[in-house]
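For reproducibility, we list the full input for the uridine-5'-diphosphate complex.
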Amino acid sequence: MEKKAESGQLLVLVPCPYQGHINPMLKLGNFLHSKGFSIAIVHTHFNSPNPSNHPEFTFFPIPDGLTADEISSGNAVTIVLAINANCKASFEQCLTDRVTEQELQNKITCIIYDEFMYFSESVANDLNIPSILLRTQSATNFIARNAMIRLHSKGCTPFPDSMLLNSVPELHPLRFKDLPIYIFGPLENYSKLLTNANNVRTSSAIIWNTLDCLDQSSLAQIKQQCQVPIFSIGPLHKFATAATSSLLEEDTGCVAWLDKQSHNSVIYVSLGSLASISEKELAEMAWGLAISRQPFLWVIRPGSICSSDWIELLPQGFLEAVGERGCIVKWAPQMEVLSHDAVGGFWSHCGWNSTLESITEGVPMLCRPCFSDQTVNARYVSQVWKIGIQLENELERGEIERTVKKLMVDEEGKGMRVRAKELKEKIEVIMKGGSTYHSLNELVEFIRSF
Ligand code: UDP
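The corresponding predicted structure, in tokenized form, follows.
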């Protein structure tokens, strides 16, 4: 019988309050809970997860001190910097009063915090509790963002147009235009946030939601330079229960629509939880999808089209033109969608979770990155793993039509689908007995040893 954690071993998890960070952290919680640990989730009021979806965890909200202006700015970098500036005292008080009171039988064994919630580490340090940080983006992105920080500190940013297509020395196949940046607000703030997130401080280890077969040379390079153990245990979404940690309600009606479509015929379109598009880009996307004649399931998140609440700005005549061939929802059960037999391609912004979710279902991708790590991931999808095509230029309906067809029906797309399936199968083996499997076991033993 598998050895469970000693009773009384409580882990406090601190997710960063954005969907792409909450998901892997709660999946990590599911996994560690299955190994016998008690799990407490300490989270901000802003974007708080829904406790009723996770009865196995105890949830502790903390005040985050965010102003209405900060929240309505929608600027993730400003918001996360403010959370780190505001939350130290409320987190410490939460641990010393509420968690201790409610979890009388449980001693806090360790605090596991998202790399962007670095205020947690200083509280852990003050209270003499071990801490581990979770990185939710790829190891290659980590190296790329360090290059970006270096170049920024030398005054080389923003990069001149003449440089954008040049390769970054030692980061092949990344070009300067692929280095992660944040397009809303000054690069100075983004660089500050990343610099803080890079710092391991006194944490005892790093958990990384990635895996050797996707990130091998970057992981090896980082492990060589890092003073603490690194557990690369991705893809986390594959190890956990089906419980959703979506901040928006999932529209499961789209699965019934998928059930009516034929094998590999549907292109699933979603730009994740933060990216947005202009009215002009919306029109090009809409008509590009319409003239491709390919069935599509399109997630249009409320507020993701600039200056509109939802789909009011869709071009006139578009919905009539596509009829039953298109399905539009506000938020989809993405993992269920990607594993559906009808889905043959994923038009994605290439957030790391979406990329991993697509890869583990063997679905080839049409990449349209917007900012942050998405540009790095898109480059790897198209140039390294060769399981997708990147739409590089300004969105234009004719090019969209051609690219959708290339991915969904042409020989080039078939090759990508074959490689995507091969990668999926390789990862299944790694999860059953390869590097991920071993890293997970080592992580559990490491935490038990505290
Ligand atoms: N997601 C979802 N339904 C949607 C769109 C996205 O459940 O309609 C989930 C997706 O499965 C992923 C997360 O939201 O786990 C988005 O994270 P990602 O890193 O891909 O991008 P981000 O939103 O951080 O830009």
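The domain at 10-244 is CATH 3.40.50.2000 (Rossmann fold). The mean pLDDT is 95. Both points were considered when choosing residues for closer inspection.
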